[in-house]
C-alpha cells in the first residue's frame, strides 16, 4: 500500500526523461508552429483543419513540457469535437488563452520577484552577467523590474478594455502582434536609456541578456 501512495501520479515515459532539452525544444517549437498556423492566411474550407491541428499541437506541447501525458490526451479528446463544430470560436478562445497564459506567466515571474522576500528579476539577471552590482545599478534594475511588471499587467488588461470601450475588432490588435511589437520597442528604448543613465559600465548585448533571463528562470523551475 505504501508503494501505491508514493507513486507519482504523472505519467513520465522513460523516453521523455532521457533528452530534456530535446523535449523542451520540441514543445516550444510545437507551440510556435501552432501560433503561426493560426495567423496564416487561410480559406474558408481550411479553417476547420487549422482549428483542429493547432489545439492538437498545443496538447502535444503540453505533454512534452509538463510530462502530464494523460491529462494532455484527455484535453485533446475533448477539444477535437469542439474544433470541428465551432472552428472560429475555438480559434479565438485558443488565441486568447495563449495570450493570457504567456503574459500571465511573465507577470507572475516579474511581479513575484518584487516581493520583500525576493530579489528583483532584472537584478538577478544582471548579477549573473556582471557579478555584484553597484548601488546605482541595483536601483536601476529594481525599477526596470517594476516597469516590466507594469507592462505585462497593462498588456493583459488591454484586450478586454478595447473589447468593451474601443472600436469593433481593435481588441485583437494586441493578440496579433501589437504587444510583441510594443515589447520590442520597449527593449530598444530601454537599451538606449540604460546607456545614458548608467555610465562607466560595460553593457552587454541583447543576446547575453536573453541568455541570462533563461538561466535565471530555469534555476527556480
UniProtKB/TrEMBL annotation:
| Residues spanning the membrane | 46-65, 97-115, 143-165, 171-193
Superkingdom classification of source: Bacteria
Q: Which UniProt keywords apply?
A: Membrane, Transmembrane, Transmembrane helix
Name of the protein: Uncharacterized protein
